[in-house]
């Protein structure tokens, strides 16, 4: 995609985000944009960075590591948003500032064990299978509180909140329902753990960011609306 297209698209997405916050009666800085850059070439990320974007989400580990090397001159905040398999945990723990896709305690413990001591704790979100889809990863909603009790004890991780990828819906009303359920879980977590840095609801993408913002998202993961179709 051309530089002008990426820049124009980022402006348009930010305008959508700002309008959604206004419509929800929330402060203008109450949610942030994560540019999902999987499968996109290095030049597109550079163009987005020049347009003011700093946080980028990657799904594929080797591709992300290659981009990190190529873009090491840029102060990018790297978020891992793909499935974390046990054999990938070390690289994720060493190379990223955030991981949104912690879906079970085994992975959390591996990330904790492999996080280098010289780095700050790895920011994590617990992925929740909020729509109960057999094909999706994520903790069952009923298990969130029990998992959280262990997550907050892992010293090399900073448990920041919840993430979900709901089943797609066509209408705003239907889109809001799973986001509402995730927000309720998030609020109950914060009430139970008032001393933890629980400040992140990672939900909403190109097609449903307005619904996510209406339900309290603090981080929306947008790819195609910025970089075009995969």
TrEMBL record:
Stretches assigned to the Alanine racemase N-terminal domain: 30-229
Organism: Larsenimonas suaedae
InterPro entries linked: Ala_racemase_N, PLP-binding_barrel, PyrdxlP_homeostasis
The keyword Zinc-finger is annotated on this UniProt entry: no
Regions that span the bilayer: none
Annotated protein name in UniProt: Pyridoxal phosphate homeostasis protein
Family: Belongs to the pyridoxal phosphate-binding protein YggS/PROSC family.
HAMAP family to which the protein is assigned, alphabetical: PLP_homeostasis
PTM-bearing positions, type N6-(pyridoxal phosphate)lysine: 38
PANTHER family registered for this protein in UniProt: PROLINE SYNTHETASE CO-TRANSCRIBED BACTERIAL HOMOLOG PROTEIN, PYRIDOXAL PHOSPHATE HOMEOSTASIS PROTEIN
Organism ancestry: Bacteria, Pseudomonadati, Pseudomonadota, Gammaproteobacteria, Oceanospirillales
Entry superkingdom: Bacteria
This protein's UniProt keywords: Pyridoxal phosphate
UniProt function note: Pyridoxal 5'-phosphate (PLP)-binding protein, which is involved in PLP homeostasis.
